[in-house]
Amino acid sequence: MKKTIASICLCFILPCTAFAASTREDLQARVDQAKIVLDQIMAANDSTVPMNILEQATCVAVVPGMLKGAFLVGAQYGQGVVTCRTGHGWSAPVFIRMAGGSFGFQIGGQATDLILIAVNDRGFQDLLKSKFKIGGDASAAAGPVGRSGQAATDWKMNAELLSYSRAKGLFAGIDLDGTSVSQNSDDTELYYGAPHRFEEILKGSVDVPPGAVSFVRTVAQYFVKAKYDK
Asked: Does this model's pTM top 0.90?
């Protein structure tokens, strides 16, 4: 019953444009915004992703402006891009959707920037699935914050994915249990102008499109730099 209510909330609380068919311009704007979000978060001095996590990351997902609406029952929806580490750099991006619900008395709404980091091969394999649920199919944890601080050891032993959010200027780990992550094959095919399997793209077999070069270089800059700033 709760799942049904959450689905209804997603349809009525969140803007209808979140579910409208994307255009090529929409997708490019999403990639461009993902770069901006990453730049802003990484410029946050000590309130950012710890270097030891950046160093070990296998994939990075950025969801700019994930929407959250609530009227008694909450619902959230977002669209973002993912790139993964390959043997010769970082891969071309693919597009994903994230959706979930929360329950309890709440009224309001906000847009939150979200980062999801796969920290081992299990996390990478999760992102190759057509759909998975955080907390069910994949273990996740709210990521520790602090550029030079030592992260808790739990994520090294248990977590496949670490999650972060930024709302109203604050950046912190976030609990995404129950949130589903699914491949957006339609948007990915539109962006590339041809169908490609997610595995093919994320393993580096597809060239980075010109419009995504800046985003991929930005990811590489921060995640490679981490190895030399320890």
From this structure: no
